[in-house]
Design goal:
By secondary structure, this protein is of the alpha+beta class. 37% of the residues lie in helices and 19% in strands. Strands 1, 2, 3, 4 and 5 form a 5-stranded antiparallel sheet that branches.
Amino acid sequence: MRLRLALETLGPIFVKFGQVLSTRRDLLPADLADELAKLQDRVPPFDSRLVRQTLERVYQRRIEEVFGQFDLEPVASASVAQVHLARLKDGTAAAVKVLRRGSPRSSATTWRCCIARPTWYSGCGGTAAG
């Protein structure tokens, strides 16, 4: 457990390393591989205050001005990003992906966000958007 927690503390790149390592059961004892496998889908979410600050910095407006509804509790959290459900001002269902600070795909100065309109989300008739 200490190794998994240390990798989580060190950041997204180290979590990715642990995820890859967890698949090498030919190299690791089963208990260590099982513990590292928790990095696949049990990464703790980051603070919702950071999500709000990030979105407001990216959009240069308050979150309530951008979205009709925004759930600060993520529906998914992984090593690189987490996803929040929202509704756009026109009522369209959306999934908002916020990259973690230190993510290999994030810039050194800001987090990047994107909105997707998933077809799997109930009530959403749109197509997926990047």
